[in-house]
Amino acid sequence: MAHIGQRRLQEFLSRHQPFATLDEATLATMAGAARIDRFSAGDLILDAFLDPSPETFVLVEGQIDLWDDRDRILEPADERFGPGAVFGFSAMLTERSVGPRVVSVGETTVAAIPADVVEPALASAEGARFLVAHLSAAIRRATSARTFSLVDELIATEPLAVGPEESAREVAGRMTERHVSCAVVDLGAGRRGMVTDSLLRRRIIVEGLPGTTPVASLIESPSATVRSGDTAAEVLVVLLEEDAEFLPVLDATGELRGVVEPADFAFSASAAGVSLHEQLRRAGTIEELSTRARQATSMMSDLLSAGLTSSRVIAIYSAVIDVVVRRAIRLVFDGHPELPVDAFTWLSLGSTGRREAVPSSDADTAVVFADSVGEEEAGAYRRAFGEVHAALAAAGLSSDRQGATASRPAFSRTNTQWRMAGQRWMAAPHENQGAIMASLLVDGRPIYGAPGLPAVSRVFTELRQHRGTMRLLLQESLSRRAKLHSMIDVLTRRSETFDIKSYAILPIVNLARWAALSVGSAVLPTTERLAAAAGSAMLPTGRAQNLVEAFDVLQRLRLRYQLLQIQRGDQPSDLLTLDRLSPIDRSVVTQAVREISAAQRRMDNVSQYVAIGDWTTPAPD
Q: How far is CA 430 from CA 288, 456, 461, 479, 520, in A?
């Protein structure tokens, strides 16, 4: 291709995505409007961080180096591409300086196609798939390149490892010599325990255990651990969820690599989450808790600006919500000393239970009472739960009074009552809103009280044995359809809106929940449920991966627009308005809805023609 004519460029475009599915007339128009540029080694082809171009570029000959992160343009390129690479369209579509920077490697030939003629390619179904794949790859490259996010870089000192038989006095002496506040005990079977200053004071000084007590006997439960190579955001989520002073960091072989604590996050992009967590945990009044909790959305914006992915930001926000709920419970029940807090377990349901909460999410909750709690006492507890929900509402976590709230009898029962209700729902899910209640409780996650108390969730592990129930639950899961045609209507009517939760996100959530139940998985996050069920006849691996990517893209878009709404002083909403959607966002949503709709149709068809017992068998190659 020493000389690129219109016909040869047209043939070249027809062999590469996202142009391959376009008709010849459109390709001919595109090739005719293109400008051909040639570059030498080291030449700057595009710097869309400084100046977004009104063109999309296609590499016809040679190789290019590409940077997606403006903070790393002095470092080696994020990736090298050959002929067929398409770049510059993100800046073109958003009209913002979002990159990339592209430099020629050797002699290169590039076709620059004007925005008005390249738009059909990007608006096509294949174009939307291309955009989604590009965004996912770019985010993975940018995230993996950010060295600040690795937990390894937060490890400040060599950890102190002690044996389980060493005495409390010996370990205290070694901690003093090393000027450290904790020691790690190997408890065997891959478990680690933490001996801390506070633990020694409580068990030895307050409880009066002798200084000769082996440290393994002081430890009440093994510590949560994290892995070398985990991001700071992932470790932060564990730190917040466990409400831990310290976390051991293990390498790939299970050997102790170090220990991290909240103070180590001071210079991490996740520091805002730790700081807010501490402020919430120490809030002395409902009013202070409310004021502090309303800083969470600002924290989310800061974390996104610092480069964390939206999925990590959402996980951190969900962990912060857990802290708010726990503190609200403590503050309310401090005013009700007659009601012991060890008589119930509080469950977060819905998106907060799945750790997928965004600013518009409701605080759906349930409570499991100990069987010793009578009905009169339960009524007093429910009134207190109403106070908890009022405190959560003041903190910006609203709930539907007629929905899933612990203050309602339907969502606060004894352990035995929940177990009996769960068994009734399994036997007849079409009665008494059994399918809906089952779906809510399957998403339940204990965040306060004894984690082992709830029995209702264990009931649903038997679901696979109830084939008729599984079919009815599948029908319920597929009843909320992804609405592709509604989206098309939205895109042609400027006054219309698109409910991204109802017509895109909930269909994936429902599908993933059922798929996880069908394979006996107890994981909660939607993407983990899809991964657990991937490879079955009902959900082939490729389809599951497409749904994972669609969910991530939709949640990212949803979060970004809700934070913009909050910045404008509006109430966060799941309604997306056309004139606030960029062209690239429209294409991404359209493709995501197509993927969800296709998965729903396939599951519907499989359920009609494949025996229930074969739904979870491996899909044929």
A: 44, 18, 19, 13, 21
Q: Kindly state the percentage of the chain with pLDDT values over 90.
A: 38
Residues 84, 25: contact at Cβ < 8 Å?
no
CA-closest candidate to residue 538, choices 457, 483, 473: 473
Q: Which two tokens stand for residue 94?
A: 């958003």
The structure tokens listed for 181 are: 């506040």
Give per-residue pLDDT as tens, 449-504: 865 545 555 555 555 556 666 777 777 778 788 875 555 554 555 447 788 999 99
Pick 287 or 613 by higher pLDDT: 287
Return the DSSP state at 42.
T
Residue corresponding to tokens 């080694």: 41
Kindly report the pTM of this predicted structure.
0.67
Alpha helices in 188-309, H assignment, sequence order:
197-200, 215-218, 232-242, 271-281, 286-293, 296-305
Strand partners, 194: 184
Partners of 79 in the β-ladder? 66
Report the DSSP beta bridge partners of residue 259.
248
DSSP H helix total and E strand total for the chain: 25, 18
How do residues 171-189 score in pLDDT, each as one tens digit? 999 999 988 889 999 998 8
Nearest to 16 by CA among 35, 38, 32, 31: 31
Q: Which strand (E) or helix (H) includes residue 161?
A: strand 161-162
CB contact at 8 A, 303 and 309? no
Nearest to 316 by CA among 402, 324, 212: 324
**Is pLDDT above 80 for 296?**
yes
| Token pair for 618 | 């491996």
Those residues whose C-beta lies under 8 Å from the C-beta of residue 608, and which sit 6 or more positions away, are: none
